[in-house]
Structures are given as C-alpha cells and as structure tokens.
Amino acid sequence: MNAKTLYSPILKGKANDLKALGKIPHSLAPHVHALVELLSPNENESIETACVRFADQLRKHCPQNAVSVDLHSIAPEHVTNDGSPALEALCANLRGLGILFTPVFGFDHEPELWDRIAPIAARQGRGLTFRLKIDDLEAGEDAIADIVERLRYAGIPTSDTKILIDLESLGGLDAVSLVRLRGLTQDFIDDALTVAKFGLISVIGSSMPKDVSGVEKEDTKAFYRQEMPLWLNVATGVPSEGIAFGDYGIVHPNFSDKIIPKHPNAKIRYTRGLHHHIFRGYSLREGLKYQQYYELARRVLGSQVYMGRDYSFGDDYAWRCANGEASCGNLGTWVEVDMNHHMVHVAAQLPQILTRVAAGVSANELLALTT
Questions:
Q1: What would the pLDDT profile of 349-359 be if each residue is shown by its tens digit?
Q2: Are the C-beta atoms of 281 and 217 separated by less than 8 Å?
Q3: How many whole angstroms separate alpha carbon 150 and alpha carbon 327?
Q4: Residue of 12, 33, 285, 313 with fewest CB within 10 Å of its CB?
C-alpha cells in the first residue's frame, strides 16, 4: 500500500468542500486521498455544464491534490453539446488541466460503464479505485474474484488498485448491527489480502446526523464517531497492512444539494477526538439571521473542544469571526470552515494512531487514548 495514504474521505464535488480539501496543510496533504463525487446536473442544466464546473473547481481549489473521481452521475447515454461521450470528455478535460485523478468504478454503477472506465484507467497509468458497498462485502469471495478478473483483463495491476469499503451511515445502528458489520468487513479484507496485494484498502463510514433536529435550539450536542472504533478494530487485526480510514467529513452520506430545507438552521460542526460536536443556533430566516454566526463562533471558542486558531484554516476563520475580523458568511462558508477543521484533525490523528497499531496497541487502548 502507499504508506502515505492514511485518510480517504468521500467529498461532494462542490466548491466549498474542495476549498476545504485544498487548504489542508502541505505537511498533512500527502496522507489524504479523497474520493470526489461528481454531482448530478442542476435543474435545467446540461451534463456538459456540470462536468465543466466540476473540472474547473478541482483545478481552482485543489490542483495539487491527488483524488479519485466517482463519475457515476454520468449516464452511459450522456453526451456533450458536440455529441462526444460525456465521460471520456470530462476525463480528457481533467487530464488537460493536470488534475491527478484516478477513476472510480463500483458494482452499483451502470454495468456498461466498466468498458469505458477501465481503458481510461489503463491509459492514465494511475490505477483504479473500486468503491464497494455492504452488498459487495456480503458477496465476499465472489466480489473479490470479480475485481481481480476485471483488473487482469484490463491490464491494471492490483498494486495500483484502491479498494474503498463504503459502509455509508453508521449513526443509527445498534451495537449488534455494528459488530456484525465489523465482522463482515474484517472477513472481506482477510479474504482480499489472501488473493492479492492491493495498493490501498480503506474502511469508510459516517455518524453525522442528517440534520440538527436532534440538537436543541441554541444548544450543543456531541455525536459519537462510530466509524472510528469500527475501523480501529479492523485495522488492529491486520496491522502490517495499514488499513486506511475514511469518512464523509461533516456531512451525512445521503446529503443532496438538490434538497433545500425550508428553514435552515445556523450551525457549526466541530470534530475532536471521538465526537462530532454540533453547535446549533436557530432558523436563518429569523432574528439575527446569518449574523448569529458571530455568537456561534464565540460559543465554539469558549468551549473545551476548541483547538486554537493556529490549528487549521477552519479554526482561524472561527476565531476571526468570533472577534469580528471576518464576516458571518453563509451556509457554504461554514461547510468549508467545518470540513477543513475536520479533515485536518483526522489527518493529524491517523499517523499517531497507526503508529501505535503497528506497535501492537489494542483497539480498546487506542480508543481510550483518542481524545
């Protein structure tokens, strides 16, 4: 495995998420390989417009970051305005812009996309990323054999292949379900490692709530990051392989930018240790509206979880907002701020944790040390 890749977040291909990725410090960025999803076109927008915007935002906000790009929102029949296949046109555009990208395929994608993704990956020479879901884990050895056979026919080495196990939302699962899912993941990885040496295996999940309805207005609540103990228990089972960690940052896996809430609330999401802390305000259509972010930022700074303005771009922005040196921003501003702090925190956590995993420290001991 690429020893530098410890963290593989899944991000939406939107400007503020990509800004957050591009502002990860250079000392941590080599540890991070994000999967970025192309979102479906907006209403009355062509697929070509969505693809051009996606490529331009990657070039503008994170041109030096190596990423995997999941283009499953491009249907096989999608073409550009001049009739060219949209998938190939976007990949050619990304290559022309110098974006360091690896194409993604999943068994839940349109099956015919494989015959188009595989040649692109082989020509790129940067390998291929398989994004697997729980159904694929349940298929076990059959799914692994399918992956290996596809790679063999495409001429792509398994050592250049990333396996991202996307468990999606974990927040609503009970203890029994989490143990079952951990066992399923562990068994799949054990089987995969007996067959081939893949370039990267990462376990990804998220415990972020869909919305802030579980937090009282003008209050704060901590949400336990279930993805961390699940990953740790798997990683400690194969310490020599260095299983990477992934999540969805500070958004729910099923987030859609096409669903606009009627009464959006002001909120700041702040990760520390094993918890997401959500600082909730109230409806942005009432009272101080967006200006309530000044007070929200002051609440973050006054809490025990704040890590100081020098910790990340996101922490510095929160400090400047709390002290009246930056604007209150909008919802997109705080996606960038919250996401940047989160990714910096996780990318800084992982080298320390994985060093201890390699030294034989147990998952329970590591969870006790993770604050």
A1: 999 998 898 88
A2: yes
A3: 51
A4: 285
Provide CB contacts within 8 A for 171, sequence distance 6+.
206, 207, 208, 209, 223, 226
- What is the token pair recorded at 42? 């907006």
Please give the single-letter amino acid code of residue 157: P
CA-only gyration radius of the chain, Å: 21
Report the predicted TM-score, pTM, of the whole model to 2 decimal places. 0.95
Q: In the chain, pLDDT over 70 holds for what percent of residues?
A: 98
- Taking residue 123's Cβ as centre, other Cβ atoms within 10 Å add up to 10
The fraction of the chain above a pLDDT of 90, given in percent, is 82
107 CB-near residues (< 8 Å, 6+ apart): 132, 133, 135, 136, 143, 146
- pLDDT of amino acid 259: 66
The C-alpha atoms of residue 11 and residue 15 are separated, in whole angstroms, by 11
Quick one: which of 40, 103, 21, 54 has its CA closest to 255? 40
In degrees and rounded to multiples of 5, residue 102 shows phi and psi of: -120, 125
Q: How far is the C-alpha of 362 from the C-alpha of 371, rounded, in Å?
A: 16
